[in-house]
Amino acid sequence: MAPHFDNISAVLAHHGQDELLQFMDRYWVADRGSNAHLWAHEYNKHATCINTLAPSCYGDGYNTGVEVVDYFVRAAALFTKLDTYTALADAGIVPSQRAHYPLMDVQKAIEQFSGGKVVLRCSGGRRDILHEAWYMFFVKGSLQTGEFVPAQDLGPKGDAGNCVPWVRYLPKRSKGRRS
Fold this sequence. Notes:
The longest helix has 16 residues. Helix 5 packs across helix 6. The chain starts with 7 loop residues before the first helix and ends with a strand. It has 2 domains: 74 residues, no CATH class; 95 residues, Ribonuclease Rh, Chain A (Alpha-Beta Complex). Helix content is 36%, strand content 16%. With 179 residues, the chain is α+β, with helices and mostly antiparallel strands. The strands form 4 sheets. The chain has a two-stranded antiparallel sheet with strand order 1-6. A two-stranded antiparallel sheet has the order 2-3. Strands 4-5 form a two-stranded antiparallel sheet.
């Protein structure tokens, strides 16, 4: 297992990943709390169970924190390929304060774009505000160099989505302003 890290920004900076940090500051933004807290949470929740990120997998040349770099480099690369906004816009689904969209249309647009299954999660008291999309993959090989193959099945636990049949896709907010 990969070790836990709390100061992701410092680790990435130590490894010369200034461009990656700028990218993350722009696109991997916390909806509450600090970006640094979000990144540590995501790394410690997801990366620590990826066996190819274990220090022992790096051999004698292991440099503390390189697994953090590998995880976030791969996550950023996947993010740039999985442009949820464009997938939805191409299907006529755009952010709006008023519009409601059939959940099935939202899911279909994203799945056609990504080539695999996706789980949609919603927030709000009625679970009608589209909040996140979970893309599912199988990895052939390691996280670092492997091929990410879109999953065609969600497995025995099925869809973990929690949205109602009609959802809202709200414009993003940034520092208290709409963007």
